[in-house]
Amino acid sequence: MSPNDLDPRSTILRLVDERGPDKTICPSEVARVIGGAEWRDAMPVIHAAAKALAEEGTVELRQSGEPCGTEGIVGPYRIAGADDGALQ
Prior knowledge:
It contains 3 helices and 4 strands. By secondary structure, the protein is an alpha+beta fold.
């Protein structure tokens, strides 16, 4: 399987789960898994998948360690598992 065959949603969920509770991942970590050497090209797809998962309540987006909404995010954010245990 090549990096381009990986699904961004399932990759986000896997990396969040592997990182463990109360930990976060950076969207660029997901992009590096999905896109390999061309990871920057994968960033728009990763952002869209993270936003969709957050809107579903499966993950939580955080800025400066605090939960943030999905609209109008400016600057870096991190992805965490949802507090409701949806990843378990």
